[in-house]
Design brief:
The protein is 61% helix and 8% strand. The chain is mainly alpha-helical. The chain has two domains: 8-40, no CATH class; 43-179. Strand 1 and strand 2 form a beta hairpin.
Length: 180
């Protein structure tokens, strides 16, 4: 099956039903009228790849962001975790035969990332089922939140926070929702 969309929500719903599906992203350069494509496996991976690339570019003359490096990277980490939490809610609902919209609405009632993590952890059956997510929450969530709002010290360890976000997202992607 081939589906074309501009809406990332379709990808989320399809992934819940077929986690190993292939996704090809098409990009059109308006100036040259050429189309290029890239593959990616999970949306949160793209965000964390961007965070690593931005961190790398910041040490060169190619840095073009007006925002602080730490804020950009921390914001991407938080967005990746939030996306993985959303995907987990969808996957859980699909696996359990529950209404996906209701599951997303319930997740949406949690207004902070901390509360969304608590919601998904409860769906999984407790902290012991998602220990990496819990360690990331305890060790890095404050950094991700402060960074996303430009309130970080410039000496923060960006690679460890990217790695923590990646580990938490991977744990959520790998979680077996049939066992909870």
């Amino acid at each position: 099956m081939i589906a074309l969309t501009h809406d990332p929500r379709l990808e989320e719903h399809l992934r819940a039903r077929q986690p190993d599906m292939s996704v090809i992203e098409l990009q059109r350069d308006a100036a040259t009228r050429t189309v290029s494509w890239t593959t990616h496996s999970l949306p949160w991976q793209s965000l964390l790849t961007d965070a690593r690339e931005i961190r790398r570019l910041s040490a060169s003359t190619e840095w073009t962001y007006s925002e602080d490096l730490h804020s950009v990277v921390a914001g991407l980490c938080r967005a990746a975790v939030d996306g993985a939490l959303r995907q987990a809610a969808i996957s859980c609902a699909v696996t359990r035969g529950e209404d996906v919209s209701a599951s997303l609405s319930a997740l949406g009632l949690s207004h902070t990332t901390k509360d969304r993590i608590a919601h998904i952890t409860a769906l999984a059956g407790g902290v012991e089922r998602l220990p990496v997510l819990d360690r990331s929450r305890r060790g890095h969530l404050k950094f991700w939140n402060k960074g996303a709002h430009g309130q970080l010290p410039p000496d923060a360890d960006l690679e460890s926070t990217i790695a923590a976000a990646e580990a938490a997202c991977q744990e959520l992607a790998d979680h077996d929702w049939t066992r909870t």
